[in-house]
Amino acid sequence: MRPHRCLRLSLILLAFSAKPLLAQEVRIGSPDGRNTIVLSAGDNRGPVQISVIRDEAELIAPSPCGPRLVGSGVLGKRVERFESKTWRIDSDFTLPWGKTNMVRNRAAAALVDLSWPGTPDWQIELYASDEGVAWRHHLKSPAKIADEGSGFRVNGGPLALYGELASSTTSHEMLYRYAPLAEIPDGVLLEMPLLLTWPDGPAAAITEARVRGFPGMCLQGTGTPGTLRCRLSPLPDQPGVCAVGDALISPWRVVMVADRAGELLESNLLTCLNDPPEGSFAWVKPGKTTMHWWNGEFEQDFKLPPDSTESLDRHRRYIDFCAANNIAYHMVSGDGRSWYRQSSTNYGKPSPDADVTAARPEIRLPEILAYAKEKGVGIRLWVHWRPLSEQLEEAFALYESWGVRGLMVDFLDRDDQAMNEFTERMLSSAARHKLHIQVHGSPKPSGEERTFPNLLNREGVLNLEHLKWSDHCTPDHDVNVAYARALAGLVDYHLGGFHAVPPGEFEPHSLEPDVLGSRCHQLALYVLYENPMPMVADTPERYAGEAGFDFLTACPTTWDETRFVAGEPGEYLVLARRRGDAWYLGGITNHQGRAVPLPLDFLPARGAEARLWLDASLDGGRPNTLKEQRVRLGPTNVPTIQFAPGGGFVGVLRPNPDDR
C-alpha cells in the first residue's frame, strides 16, 4: 500500500518525528485517492519542495517552496526540523449566495514545522481534496518578505491559457493566449488563474486563495520550458519589500485539478480555503443593477443648467424601469463628473479636495434616494477608493443614514499588502453599516466572499466596457475569460448590451455602445459567469419589447448547483445552473459556428420541459434575432444546439407539473 493511502485511510493521525531523517517528506492524498501533494526536504535536509500528483502521474515536479526574506534569502534551503501532524476535514456549510448553496469540505491536511538557523519559525500547511491541492506558509515571528521564492516545474508539456500583466500596478484587464506553456518567454508576468491542459487530460489551474494581510501573487516565465516562478506585488513605499508583519500567513497556493477544464468551474475549492463569516449577513441581497455610465446617457448632464430637472427625471425613469423588471438596484455614478464634490473633472483622478460625504447639489441625490425608496429600488453609489479611504467610517455611516444599499469602489489597480489590508478594512466597515461592495480596478478573487458575503462583485477582467473604445471584447475573449479568470469566482463584466453588430460593422463609441456576439451570446453570460450582482447596463429603451429580455429579467443571480455540460478551452462552453427545481442553461462559442450535442445526464429520468432561446441567424448576419423553442428534454435524449459564429443560447428546464 502506498504511503499516502496509509495516511488517507487512517483515523485522525498525529505523527511527530523527533530527529531529522534523510529524504524527509509528508505526503497526503485526497479522499478519492486521485490527488496527492508531497512536501519533501531533499536528501540533505533541503531544499524544501512541493510536488503534485494526479492519478499517479506527477503534474508538478518537485518545485521550490518558500518565501524570500529581506537580507536572508529563501527559506528552506536547509532544514533542521521536519515535524508533522496530519488530520482529516469533513464538514458541510451553506453559502448565502454563490454557484452552489451547500458546500462539502472533505480533505486531508497536514502541518509541518520547519526551521533554519537565524530565520523566523516557519510552518507549511498542506491540503488535499478531490478538487485539488493547496499549501501555505506560516511565519510565527516578525519578518520582512522580499518576494516569493517558490515556483512550479510543470511536467508533460501542457497548453496554457494565460494573460500577461504589464506590472504589479494594474487593473488586471487583459486579453488571453492559449499556447504551449513552453513558449512563455523569460520575464513575462502572468495573471492567475493560469489554466493548464494536457492532451489526454487532466486539466489544472494555478491560483491562490484567502489573500488577507498579504500581497497578491502572479507567475513569471523563466525561460526554461515548463518552469514558472512566483512573484509578489511589492509595497509602493518600501523598495525591495513585499510584506511586513509580526506574524504572517501567506495565501494558499492552489492547484485546482479536474478531468476536463470545464469541470473546474464546478469547484468550491477556493471557497473552502477561506474563513467563515463572522456575524449575520442575512441583510445582503444579491440582484441585478443598472450601470448608466456604460451606456453614456448621463455623461453630458454636467452641462445642464443648475435648475434643470432633466437628469433627475432620467434617474426616475431608470428607477421605474428597475421596479417594473425585477432589477434590484439603480447605480448613481455622476453626470460626467463624480456625484460628490471635488474640483477634478476626471473620475479616475480625484483631487485633494474630494469629499465623498458631500453630494453636489445639482445631482439631486436626496430626491433620487427618496424616489427609489418609494419604488422599492435600492440605490448604489460609485466612489474612487482614495478619497473614500480618507473618510471611510464617516462616509459609510452617512451612506447608511441616507439609505444607500451599496457601492462600486473603483480604481484600486493594486494588490500589494497595503491595498489588500485597506480592502479588508473597507469590507468590514461596510458590513457594520450594512453596505455591499463591488470592486473595480480589482485583482482576481480568491474566495474571500465566503468571509465577506457583502463583497458582491469584482471586476479585474477586460470586459464589455472596452467596447466603448476598442474591439477587444470579442466572443473569443468571452470564452477565454470563462476558462481562465472565471475559475477564480466573481466576474463583473458590464453585462446587458442589447444591440449587437456583425464584426465587420463594429465601431467603438461611448454613447450606447454596440456589442460583439449574438443576442443569445450576451444572454448566456448571465448564466456562465458567477455574478450575484450582474449589470443591466444598456438604456431602458434598448430593452423595450426586445426578444430575450424576458429571460434576462427572470434569470437568477445566485444558484443551488452548477454543472459543466460541454466545452473546450478557447472554443465554446455550456454550463447548467440550478435554482430550486429549475435548471438554467447557457452556452457560447467563439467566432466559429458549430453544432454541440448536450448531454443532460443531471436531469431526472422523467425529464423536463425546456424553453430555449436560440440563434436565429446562423450565418451571424443578424445577431440580434433569436428564436424560441419549447421541447421536452431528458437524460437519455441528447439535443444538438446550433451556434452562429459568435453565437450562444440559453434555456430554462423545469419539471412538468404532472410529473412532480
Automatic annotation (TrEMBL):
Domain Glycosyl-hydrolase 97 catalytic: 293-461
GO molecular function, one term: carbohydrate binding
InterPro entries hit by this protein: Aldolase_TIM, GH, GH-type_carb-bd, GH97_C, GH97_catalytic, GH97_N, Glyco_hydro_b, Glycosyl_hydrolase_97
Keywords: Glycosidase, Hydrolase, Signal
Domain Glycosyl-hydrolase 97 N-terminal: from-to ranges: 29-276
Signal peptide span: 1-23
Keyword hit for Thylakoid: no
Domain Glycosyl-hydrolase 97 C-terminal oligomerisation, first and last residues per copy: 558-653
EC number: 3.2.1.22
Protein name from the UniProt record: Retaining alpha-galactosidase
